[in-house]
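Researcher: Let's do a round of design. I'm pasting the structure tokens now; please hold your answer until I've finished.
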């Protein structure tokens, strides 16, 4: 399936989706957003990284910032913080540069490495957009965490790519239905900027009451 320009979703939403589908829907379906210290720090970091449009040359690489991305296959669009190009026989031609160059996305994050795949999935989504844009296969990229000042290499294996494809498809399905998912089990809500909008404790109580009502109704119907 190919998505049109009007159907594209924010690529950055992959990070929200893999952290919590309900959070993604509150932001991208209900268009609700509340900023806290963590989101403000992240926004300032990205503004600092994306602020420069000039091309840099360092350590055998050509570095470009704020590269516009989109994928008709995934149905997403966004911006890559930083893309480093390295000499490669299977790379692409760059204007005014001899030889062939392979792109490698680098995503900047304010915190430290997370246990889940939300950051890796967002980076993989960028790479998949670049593959569609440039016509090459990108094997890996890097996550740079500001808190630890550490780069974490990420391999774009088949499992990660499949997860990204499914997530993009599911995001489009959620948007089409307009139904915000329920609060998932096990999600950490304390640092979420939308906790006052989501009210997870209240939502879970409501879900429990509805579940009990349905069970009582079904069992009552069977015994009638």
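Researcher: That's everything. Go ahead.
Model: Designed sequence:
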């Amino acid at each position: 399936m190919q998505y049109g320009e009007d159907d594209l979703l924010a690529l950055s939403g992959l990070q929200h989706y893999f952290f919590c589908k309900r959070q993604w829907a509150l932001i991208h379906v209900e268009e609700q957003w509340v900023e806290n210290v963590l989101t403000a720090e992240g926004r300032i970091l990205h503004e600092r990284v994306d602020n420069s449009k000039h091309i840099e040359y360092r350590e055998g690489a050509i570095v470009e910032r704020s590269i516009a991305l989109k994928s008709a296959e995934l149905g997403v669009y966004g911006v890559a913080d930083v893309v480093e190009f390295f000499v490669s026989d299977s790379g692409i031609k760059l204007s005014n540069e001899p030889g062939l160059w392979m792109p490698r996305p680098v995503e900047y994050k304010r915190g430290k490495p997370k246990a889940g795949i939300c950051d890796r999935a967002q980076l993989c989504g960028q790479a998949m957009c670049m593959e569609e844009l440039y016509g090459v296969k990108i094997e890996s990229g890097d996550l740079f965490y500001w808190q630890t000042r550490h780069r974490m290499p990420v391999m774009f294996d088949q499992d990660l790519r499949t997860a990204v494809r499914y997530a993009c498809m599911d995001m489009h399905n959620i948007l089409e239905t307009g139904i915000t998912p329920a609060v998932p089990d096990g999600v950490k809500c304390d640092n979420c900027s939308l906790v006052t909008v989501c009210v997870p404790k209240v939502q879970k109580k409501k879900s429990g009451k509805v579940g009990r009502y349905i069970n009582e109704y079904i069992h009552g119907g069977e015994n009638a």
